[in-house]
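Collaborator request, handled under Task 6.
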Amino acid sequence: MNKITPQLLDRYVRGQCSAEEAGQVLDWLATPEGEQYLADQLQKDLSQFTHEPVILPETPHATHQLNQIREKIMGVPKSLLPAFLGVGTG
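Structure tokens returned to the collaborator:
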């Protein structure tokens, strides 16, 4: 897998990466490192709305919802993921 750079993640979020790059980002986001990146980014984003750190609890309900989202995304063929997620094709 190619290294996931901040620039690639930014292009992914903006819908400006190719279908192949989008697939690489999605594969990386499914790794422990990618999951930690998402958790850190969410924490950072949420902290912008409050002056105190936001602690995200790990509850069975939240875990269940995350697993449902993963199942839906992983159930879509990779070739259709960019359209499914609304990202550009290049």
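The cover message to the collaborator said: "Helices lie at 6-13, 19-29, 32-47, 60-74, 81-85. Residues 45 and 54 are 10 Å apart (CA to CA). Please let us know whether this matches your experimental observations."
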